Amino acid sequence: MTQVVVEDLQDAVPTTRFERANVVRLSIAQALAGANSTVIYATGAVIGDMLAPTKALATLPISIFVVGMAACTLPAGAIAQHHGRRAAFMIGTGCGVAGGLMGTLAVLQASFWLFCLATFFGGVYAAVVLSFRFAAADCAAPERRPRALSAVMAGGVFAGVIGPQLVTYTMDLWQPYLFAATYLGQAAVAAISLLVLAGVRLPAPTATDAGKGRPLAIIARQPRLIGAVVCGVVSYLLMNFLMTAAPLAMKFCNLPQQSANLGLQWHVIAMYGPSFWTGRLITRFGASKVVATGLLLTAASSAVGLLGIQVAHFWATLILLGVGWNFGFVGASAMVLECHRPEEKARVQSLNDFVVFGTMTFGSFLSGGLLSAYGWDTVLWLSFPPLLFAVAALFVASPKPSRESVAA
Question: Mean per-residue pLDDT for 237-263?
């Protein structure tokens, strides 16, 4: 049996020894960590609207959250590479605890800029959470890696319940400070996740063949990779663009905060629930067709939102948006895997994530100003041009049948 060196152990042990415990812990941590993102998305624009010096900055805290994700994706990977994934987990989750405490203090002091700093720390936490599913695969035998990935992704479904319910049951607890108790609760949930992750045992980092592989400039010229990045960017950008604006739009339409919380709950479930079969669909139909379906569902979500401003319209929009994101983003990620050699994966995947999360910042920032100035319908209409651009990029990137295959 293959032996690996495991963190904090002097003797070599089989890879599978800690597999089951690691997957369980990472799944629980994924569910708990999801409360961080959901709380920020559910309340960030509303608190921003209350505290910001101008209404156009209402969604800036969520933009800062995305900046934190983009800025810390590469550093988190570097920490994991040199010190092990668990070290990155502990630092990132500690930032989640700090962010929750800062958020509470910001609400108590009515400090908009402190709240923005709190959401940045939340973004750092979210950047580390992105690697949980890959960590599960590290400790699993090759034939069990898909099951390990699926189990951790299942945590995202539970996160869709934990986060909104946390907001619903805590937002009015600390009167007259709306949402102060919510962020205190988020810090407590992150602290529990920290304890769960402390027991994870993963393979120690090994040296990588840093000098091997093609130059990144050459890799990035591939039409397939360009199409994959464009589709990933548009899928994540529009998901963030619409999800950021939706809770505030519901507030402007005089709909209750509890309805916004439930809408986000089902949105997050719709984001992660399909992951159990998205991989099978990609294997059967190809990544390009799955991405195209995701883009179509995202377009359908905007179309439904344009039909009315009742709770049902917002919920349907958020659910379709979640499923569309899953198909579009997961399919685009599968396309990225087709564009690099094994020794190039770290650089190419990091570049893809950096571009995706960096671009998301603009969407979350613009959505608040556009919503305040022009209304929810304008936000929805503006989602269609990027979708058309992504469809065009996908068409160019899709493999074309050769003359030999057509003749055959």
Answer: 85
Can you tell me the distance from the alpha carbon of 389 to that of 232, in angstroms, rounded to the nearest whole number? 12
State the Cα–Cα distance between residues 307 and 144, nearest whole angstrom: 45
pLDDT for residue 106 is more than 70: yes
**Rounded CA separation 352/267 (Å):** 24
Concatenated DSSP letters for 22-73? HHHHHHHHHHHHHHHHHHHHHHHHHHHHHH-SSGGGTTHHHHHHHHHHHHHH
Q: Residue ranges of the alpha helices (H) in 110-200?
A: 112-129, 132-138, 145-170, 180-197
CA proximity to 68, closest of 129, 7, 14: 129
Two tokens, residue 186: 């988020």
Please state, in angstroms and rounded to a whole number, the distance separating the CA atoms of residues 86 and 200: 7
Inform me whether the pLDDT recorded for 299 exceeds 90: yes
Tell whether omega for the bond before 14 is within 30 degrees of 0, i.e. cis. no
Any idea which of 13-22, 135-144, 297-306, 389-398 has the lowest mean pLDDT? Answer: 13-22
**Distance set, CA 361 to CA 72, 75, 233, 368 (Å):** 14, 18, 11, 12
Q: Is the pLDDT of residue 207 over 60?
A: no
Is the pLDDT reported for residue 47 higher than 70? yes
Angle at 121 between CA 41 and CA 383, to 5 degrees: 35
The b/e string for 24-51 (b: 16+ C-beta within 10 A; e otherwise) is bbbbbbbbbbbbbbbbbbbbbbbbbbeb
Percentage of the chain with pLDDT > 90? 27
Span 58-82, mean pLDDT?
81
Contact 322, 294 (CB under 8 A): no
Cα–Cα distance for residue pair 154/157, rounded to 1 Å? 5
Instruction: Give the pair of three-digit tokens for residue 260.
Output: 């916004």
